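Entry for the shared binder. Reason: the reviewer on the internal report wants the predicted structure included alongside the sequence.
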Amino acid sequence: MRVGHPTGGGAGGEVVRAVNGLTARWAATARDGTVFSAAGVWPLLAFLADGAAGPARAELAGALGVPAEQAAGTARELLTALRSVSGLDAALGLWTHHGLTLREQWRAGLPAGTHGVFGDDLVTAQERLDAWAAERTGGLVERMPVTLDREARMVLASALALGTTWRQPFKELPLRPDSGPWQGRTLRGLYRRSVRPDRVGVTGTPDGFVTALTVPGDNGMDVHLVLGEERMTPGQVLTAGVGVVERTLPLTGGGLLPHGHVGPGLHVEQQPAVEPEPTTLDVRTVAYEVRADHDLLALAGLFGLTAVTDPRHGHFPGISAFPLALGAGRQSALAQFGPLGFRAAAVTAVMPVAGSGPPRYRYETTAVRVSFDRPFGFLAVDRASRLVLVAGWVTDPAPYPVRAFPGAVPPGR
């Protein structure tokens, strides 16, 4: 991704910091079983800010973390960079009612080929919007998260679809946690061993310790799994995860940790070996699918959308001479984590309205073991820029499938 280093200079680093900042603030509000993409919301807010005036413009700029006069240019830079990421498809769409005339300067600031028109046949128009969402996400998100009504004058939407294949696949076996919220369940467990103990580490935060594991994809995309102390909230753990991704929180790698229980779900053990071996990393986690629908207006302050929802005023004179207020803003998102890889998608829209036998042991080796067998967070990240594309929280992992016969292929394989 050509958006620069998040701790470096230049506009590239600034947009990564701005989007990750929104991710962290959204993550702080996270509750059980969710997935969301600030990278999908941010460009929409930026184009709205470009056409806004008065309190709405200032509020949107505050949520974006960049001045309103720079917002559209930065959004175009972000969209261009997203399209350059291997394994990621990103699109922007704009549809306006045939009676709404846009300011040419604002419309020209959008990527080419994004503008369509809808008429008074709202059923047909909605079908077109839903088809766009499904096509742009490979069917992962089947419909647009907003529904057209007679007051709708414009829909501005983004779609992200991403996927990666693990460099090293997981082995699938039943997992039966002996404690915690998943105790008593037989889950679709994922296991693997590697000689890269520094893929996992632990960091300290004011809220508690957090264990972070990097699962590398084969196309420049990584998924980070984060597990906090049991007393920590999802928001606290995910916020720490953003800090780990951005390297603002120091992470002590598995190869440097002492023996014993060294972090949430993380142990370092000495064990016998028949020959000299490097330190190993044993990972135990679960397959999952998480879906979520978000009403952005329920968190209007977070997204800078409080002022723009007041229907008594027009807030976007830079978009159209017709007075516009925001009637809806929603996101639908999905994430899937399995033995072979990861897939995720998000569509966001804003709608201005009206083992073997015992061997002879002669050596000892070190094993770093990490287990994600209770609720945890995840962040899908572009490796080069450290831009967080999708984040979420797992509370209901996939059950282990019942085999109809020996050797049956599990769902999703």
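Summary line for the report: Helices lie at 10-27, 38-51, 54-64, 68-83, 104-108, 122-136, 234-246, 300-303.
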